Amino acid sequence: MPKYILGYHGGSMPESEAEQAAVLAAWGAWFEQLGGAIVDGGNPTAAAKTIAPDGSTADGGGANPLTGYSILEATDLDSAVILAKGCPIFTAGGSVEVSELVEM
User: Fold this and answer.
1) What is the pTM of this model?
2) Which of 26, 36, 51, 75 is the one with CA 20 to 30 A from 19?
3) Of 41, 19, 34, 37, which is closest to residue 92 (Cα–Cα)?
4) Cα three-residue angle 67-11-1, rounded to 5 degrees
């Protein structure tokens, strides 16, 4: 079955411990709902650098930096998009990019 990477962009973690716990619980519930479709729950990302063809570097991410990822299996891209629509990042103002991973 094809694999898809969900690239998370934006969003924010609340400051209070209670709100953080609620966010983590929402992610846990979503992963549980996805069940066997989850291949790798992924992780948040941290600082990044972008490397240009000339070898120069700049702080990474540009206008919409990657803030995390997950990998799942789905029958096709449209099915992966449907699964991604339940992502809790939307409640934090973020977005999800869904891309098929190409087996090499």
Assistant:
1) 0.89
2) 36
3) 19
4) 55
